[in-house]
Here is the input.
Amino acid sequence: MNRASWLDKLYYFLPIAPAQDAAAIVPNDATVLDPPARALWVGTAGNLTVVTRLGTEVTFSNVPAGTLIEVSVSKVKSTSTTAGSIVGMY
Here is the structure.
């Protein structure tokens, strides 16, 4: 493994390292985020149902607009998600 690749992988998993990228996420029950998002920004208030990187489904209820959810997620589900303007941090 070359050094840049090794450092990139290490950087991704360091909990204190800032995100390197961001992208809008449209909730979908079938879409798997690859790589998983490190965190989610919620722009419009509501409920947020996700599947964590380890496979646990959880609903964050009444998430206020402008909240950063610091949980690594592999899915943002459309079922039960009413929050909007969701941005994944990578």
User: Anything to note?
Assistant: The chain has a mean pLDDT of 90.
